[in-house]
Specification:
The complex is a heterodimer of chains A (155) and B (274). Chain A is α+β, with helices and mostly antiparallel strands and 155 residues long. Chain A has two domains: 2-77, Roll (Ubiquitin-like (UB roll)); 81-154, DNA polymerase, domain 1. Chain A is 36% helix and 16% strand. Chain A has helices at residues 23-30, 82-93, 103-116, 122-128, 140-154, and strands at 2-8, 11-17, 49-52, 55-58, 71-73. Chain A has a five-stranded mixed beta sheet, with helices on one face. In chain A, a hairpin with a 2-residue loop joins β1 and β2. The termini of chain A are far apart. The relative contact order of chain A is 0.16. Helices cover 31% and strands 24% of the residues of chain B. Classes of the chains: A alpha+beta (155), B alpha+beta (274). The interface between A and B is medium-sized, with 32 and 31 residues.
């Protein structure tokens, strides 16, 4: 077991973890933050995407021991985030989710697109979303939701 | 989909990493971003006894201009290169290649040195950097050395690293202002590991031309006949690329022949398109 100290959703956390425990399993099983979902567990599907030190990353192939000293934000940590508020609303209005399994990862990626690529068009949004799989919606609603937030913020 | 048990140690610096990697006789692996090693461990294709974390070491994140080459620390992420945080000395080639690697969430953590050490045939850097004529800096118990990529990657996932060696940097020759490059990869879906990668770097002012084929079942493959054609200013059609591959004894199936020839031809056409 290895001792780690990190910040999760703004709160300090100290824990003893097995080296092989992924960050995703750590936040879900030890921290009861089950908003982070696990799909493929090898970095392809994007369901587990969360933020580490302000950047979206895959928590299924990142070990918790590697996050000593890091600041982690899971989907639960974006309640008061202005961009995420817009995205939640837009996902609802545009039918951007159905079963909800991919949604936490989709929202973290969507927020990154909105912040990093304010001028993104539909083609770019679709390209950026290629690392997040959704098996319900066919992506049309998700893309529309992200484009709506981009449009709103461009004023 | 959980990795087998392993021991873990965090290196304080490069010397510490080398010491830790050599501290036991088992299968010990340095961990950079873990974006390739992580999946391999989750799939239990890799079951290291000891993982030595080198992520975050300052000495692996430096970028320095050394005259005719840029030295990029092994721990520099793909996203940093994509975002132009590393000086552009390859007429935009490295930046373009970095932006095509996997997905942003992977590029934010995955590193250039990790990709080279991992040596997946379908990965982007082994092929792109080889076409640029790059060299890899290695440190280990036997001392520090710099090796051309053409001598570094020996086969799929097989490189000239001794057990306690780590990759510390990539030495990338600077392109002349008039140099041309082309990079074309064929994937069924953006971000997926490629089915084929064709790439060309043509820098007549330096007398350098490289044409390299990636995503084969082995190390990236130099295609000297096509480099010669590029030097001579000839067009390279799909059939020309097929003939060049056949002439050097490549043995792909029909599908492989076709996509590899298409990737090479499109990379070369792309290099001279504008």
């Amino acid at each position: 077991m290895t001792e780690i100290s990190l910040t999760i959703n703004g709160a300090p956390v100290t824990a003893s973890v097995e080296p092989r425990t992924s960050l995703a399993d750590f936040v879900r099983d030890s921290q009861r933050l089950t908003g982070t979902h696990l799909g493929c567990e090898h970095g392809v599907c994007g369901a587990c995407t969360l933020e580490i030190d302000g950047e979206p990353m895959r928590s299924c192939i990142t070990y918790a021991v590697s996050c000593d000293g890091a600041s982690v934000t899971t989907i639960e940590g974006f309640d008061d985030d202005e961009v995420m508020e817009d995205l939640r609303q837009a996902f609802t209005e545009n039918h951007g989710l159905q079963c909800g399994y991919c949604t936490p990862g989709m929202l973290v990626t969507a927020r990154d697109i909105v912040r990093r690529l304010p001028e993104a068009d539909e083609k770019r949004v679709r390209l950026e979303l290629s690392g997040n799989l959704c098996r319900c919606t066919g992506y049309v609603g998700i893309v529309r939701a992200i484009l709506a937030v981009l449009e709103k913020r461009r004023g | 989909m959980k990795p087998a048990r392993f021991d873990y140690a965090r290196a304080g610096d490069i010397a510490d990493a080398i010491r830790l990697l050599g501290s036991t006789d088992g299968f010990n692996k340095p961990l950079g971003g873990g974006m390739s090693l992580g999946p391999m461990m989750n799939l239990r294709l890799a079951q290291p006894d000891l993982v030595v974390e080198v992520r975050g070491l300052d000495a692996l994140k430096t970028v320095s201009d050394e005259g005719d080459r840029l030295v990029v620390g092994a721990g520099v992420t793909h996203a940093a290169i994509e975002d132009g945080k590393v000086p552009d000395t390859t007429n935009g080639m490295m930046r373009s290649v970095a932006g095509q690697i996997a997905y942003r969430a992977v590029r934010n953590r995955g590193t250039i040195g990790g990709s080279i050490a991992h040596a997946d045939p379908a990965a982007d850097w082994p092929t792109a950097l080889r076409a640029l004529g790059a060299e890899v800096a290695i440190d280990g118990p036997g001392g520090a050395r710099v090796v051309p990529l053409s001598e570094f990657q020996l086969a799929a996932f097989t490189v000239a690293l001794e057990p306690a060696d780590i990759v510390t940097a990539l030495h990338v020759p600077k392109l002349s202002p008039g140099a041309r490059w082309g990079y074309y990869k064929i994937c069924r879906k953006p971000g997926e590991f490629a089915d084929s990668i064709g790439t060309v770097v043509h820098d007549p002012d330096r007398g350098y031309t490289g044409v390299v084929l990636g995503a084969t079942d082995g190390a990236p493959l130099d295609v000297p006949a096509l480099a010669e054609a590029v030097r001579a200013g000839k067009d390279v059609e799909i059939d020309d690329a097929k003939a060049a591959l056949a002439a050097q004894g490549a043995t792909f199936d029909d599908y492989g022949n076709q996509i590899h020839a298409v990737a090479l031809s499109r990379a070369i056409k792309g290099a001279f398109a504008s």
